[in-house]
Amino acid sequence: xxxxxxxxxxxxxxxxxxxxxxxxxxxxxxxxxxxxxxxxxxxxxxxxxxxxxxxxxxxxxxxxxxxxxxxxxxxxxxxxxxxxxxxxxxxxxxxxxxxxxxxxxxxxxxxxxxxxxxxxxxxxxxxxxxxxxxxxxxxxxxxxxxxxxxxxxxxxxxxxxxxxxxxxxxxxxxxxxxxxxxxxxxxxxxxxxxxxxxxxxxxxxxxxxxxxxxxxxxxxxxxxxxxxxxxxxxxxxxxxxxxxxxxxxxxxxxxxxxxxxxxxxxxxxxxxxxxxxxxxxxxxxxxxxxxxxxxxxxxxxxxxxxxxxxxxxxxxxxxxxxxxxxxxxxxxxxxxxxxxxx
Length: 342
Prior knowledge:
- This protein is mainly alpha-helical.
- Helices cover 55% and strands 6% of the residues.
- The chain is built from 15 helices and five strands.
- The chain has helices at 2-6, 13-21, 31-52, 59-67, 72-84, 99-116, 154-173, 179-182, 188-201, 207-224, 229-239, 244-255, 265-278, 296-304, 321-331; strands at residues 96-98, 123-127, 134-137, 140-144, 148-150.
- The strands form two sheets. The chain has a three-stranded mixed β-sheet with strand order 2-4-3, covered by helices on one side. A two-stranded antiparallel ribbon has the order 1-5.
- Helix 2 (13-21) packs antiparallel against helix 3 (31-52).
- The longest helix is centred in the first third of the chain and has 22 residues, at 31-52.
- The protein is globular and about 60 Å long.
- The N and C termini lie far apart (49 Å).
């Protein structure tokens, strides 16, 4: 048991922490860069601590420290989405696509971005060791061989993974500092918010998907408040109308590792981006790399001082006339509960 606690998944956490804190930042004369690297060092330390506590009672506490609690305003937004975004009773058959079709369309999209910017050199791999779906790791898009998805959702999901996650990786790589491609401290919320926004802008946000993002927030809040697996499952089915299979899979995600609250960041990040747009803000700095909402003014300052390059490439979906109209609607106050296309 002791060996498991201190070497989870074959990782010597204490050795990694020693390496982490052997990195000195005192040579950085720029206080802004010093702050960014110190924040990332502290976040990585917390991630390692959480990894060490995997499958223990303290795992949830460290998850809360890393991803934050579910704020009352966020929980209220999630419940509003679930209440107002109703599902249709349409039982018509929906065309599905397998992993090979998804992978081919992924390669086509990667090639289109590569034509615009040769530095966009992503690879697409079909993998047997992943659950159904897509995942970006570094410069790769991994497609599970078990993937079977709605064909009408392919462009939206590829815009999510390629048009946001991979694009900010390569734009961040051009900055010369790895931290901008790997992600500044707390970057994941805005990254997922931008990625969910991409699904809406491309016209592929379904009511089911929007409700799922909101339901994850409600489930995270219940888990953090001490609800059991069974209680959260019943909350999803009896109160919020999820199917038994959907509720089980969602609850399983939330309680993995001992209780992981990360799934609340999708709706939180989307809300942050939406409020930013309503305040007249631009999305341009967010394409420079993987940054958090708190880093927006810092990115502007670094860019004005010539320490950051403008993005090499912008998401292709932003050029679409329909996407521009949807962005305008958001800026004028379109509620998140109305952000479903299908």
